[in-house]
Amino acid sequence: MTLRLLRAWIAWLWSGWSAAAGLALLVAGWQLAAERLGPLLLPAPLDAFARLYSLLEAGVLWPEFLVTARRALAGFALALGIGCAAGVLAGISRAGALLARPLVTVLLGMPPIAWLVLALLWLGSGDGTPVFTVCAAALPVVFGATLQGMLTRDTALSAMARAFGLSWRPRVIEVELPHLLAWLFPAATTALGTSWKVAVMAELLTSSDGIGAALADARTQLDMTTALAWVLCVLLALLLVEYGLLEPVKRELERWREVAR
Amino acid sequence: MSLLRIRGFGHRYGARRALAPMDLTLERGESLAVLGPSGCGKSTLLQATAGLLEIGEGTIERGWQNLGMVFQEPRLLAWRSALDNIALGLKARGVRRRERRAAATALGTRLGLSAADLALYPAALSGGMRSRVALARALAIEPDLLLLDEPFAALDIGLRHELEQWLLRECLRLGCTMLMITHSPREALRLADRLLVLGGQPGRPLLALQPALRATDRSERDVLALETALLADTGFRAAFGLPPDERVEATDRAPETAWFQHHCLATPAPDRQAC
In this protein, which residues make up the domain named ABC transmembrane type-1 (chain A) (predicted)? Predict the structure, then answer.
């Protein structure tokens, strides 16, 4: 399994030329816009990358990055745990599903900034506020997907597994979990992206450390190059996690789906 | 002890009664086909036997150790290869990975699936191959009772015949008992030693038929002759709601092998003269 995952990962990286071309186009567009607008409004990509490198060399980047990563991942992990558990519970009982549906709509519609204001009042300006806000923003996505996965379970397959004498544990592993994962994985990927964005936003408005706080500093000093360097840092981290880890794992887990397409 | 003994089993879905209380006994090594029109309770009977239905009325005594089942649709795990699907029942019985894969490969090969086919996911298999995998999954556990729920209904006549013959041979080799439900008299006559016809609303046994030859001893000619005789039978026609057909004079045309013992158990409806 590990070897197969590694092979899938290398194959995925090799097939990433088209993605690289897309990114190169984006940077080219950025360069073009920078030349028109001037360095005060939009610094050139090379300058932003150079600043990112100097932040890394000065030892400023890692500590701030790790603070944000800690908050984003803690909020995401909480959302994943609570969302999955609540989604499964709501999916088991029909009444639970009926009660939960409008709840998902309300929670999905609630802007993260509203959660942020509430969290700031309840939890102050420590780690709690960004972690809570990230969790609140990512939770409905995970919960909704888990619930949907539970509601669309194939009862015919479960009956087959019971007829063949599979006890509840292998039945969950062989029949229920793969179906649930197919729903959960795309939702978790979206939720992870949301977690990063919301963590940075929460830090920008409430914290004194982390990438968001560094962005706020750059803004007060009207330092566009540093601000863009921090934005690049977040985007690179997201790209790395998404394309370097999640996507190959997803492709491996859902190989059976590729065949169906 | 009988392998399966059903006493007074009946079933309701909500307020609607699907199956009137009925008795059924199946001895070891026997094969029985339950025929009947749609909605007569055939599937209910099979599901209750498989333990997939809560029994509210009557009793079902289960004398088997190993139950295999083939459903109307293949019901394969889309995320598992054909080989792993065949080995599913063995996994449930705690057979080691290497042994169960070897057994599944051997069975799959006997059913005409190559190693390359066995490595594929169900989505990449043809309908016929999926049916083979589902059949192999049921037989991999060497069941003492095999339940078949119209397993070949969606297959072309060539493939259906091939799989029916294969199933007969395997069942004979394993000595397994078979309970199948079907719409098709021909399929029933090819595979089953005796036939039970359900009908009416709610469903109940109407006819019990026992052809002279056992399923394994019948030639295709015997099967066709028996089918002709069966389709001419007034009780059988009434069970399926077919009008009496005066043109068929089965007893004149059918050869001697088409003879079967015929027990009228009930009439489909009080106003119908079935037997």
Answer: 65-247
